[in-house]
Amino acid sequence: MALLYRFVQLPDRSGTRVFSFVVTRSVVRDPERDVTSKELVCGFQRWAVAFSRGDKVLGVYLVWRGASRNLRVYVDFTFTLLNREHFSMNEGFSGKRVKFTYELPAQGNRNYIPVSDLYTRNFADTNGEFQLELSMANVRTVYMTEVRMPTGVFSTGQPKSNKLETDCFTFGGFDWSVVIYPYGNKEAEGCRGQENRVSVYLMRLTGFDHRCRVRYSVALGEGDRRIDSGQIEDLSNAEGYADLHSETVRLHLIYKDINHVPRNHLRYVNWSAYLLRGDEPDTVAIGLPGAPFSRYYAQESVDEGIIMETNLDTNEIKDNHCPFLTDKKQLRIRLEWNESHLLFQATYHKYDDVCRIHNQQMRREIASLQAENYSLERQLFSYQKSLAFAQAQQQQHQQQQQQQQQQHQQQQQQQSQTRHTSHQAHLERSTSTDTEYA
Question: Which CDD domains does UniProt cross-reference here (predicted)?
Answer without folding.
Answer: MATH
